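The methods section describes the discrete structure representation at length, but only in general terms. What matters is that the chain and its backbone geometry are given together, residue for residue. For illustration, here is how one protein appears when written out as sequence plus structure tokens:
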Amino acid sequence: MEIKVLMSCCAKLDAVVEQAVKELGIDANIEKVTDMQEIMKYTMSTPGLVVNGKLKHSGNPMPGLERVKAMIKSEV
């Protein structure tokens, strides 16, 4: 599974994603993307979450752990 965390600064979504993957027991490659050109391929709003090439979340409010787990599970 490929997961991209789109972040323009110090967003905490990456920690939530890492915890979700750990709790779900999923083997995933988590990439933190800070390059605006790359982020703009998916969205104009950060933080963002891309799972297997599909944008699952962008902008505020940042999703919580249970919501992130649901977004990841939808692509398993």
User: Anything to note?
Assistant: The beta strands are 2-6, 29-33, 48-51, 54-58. The mean pLDDT is 94. The longest strand covers residues 2-6.
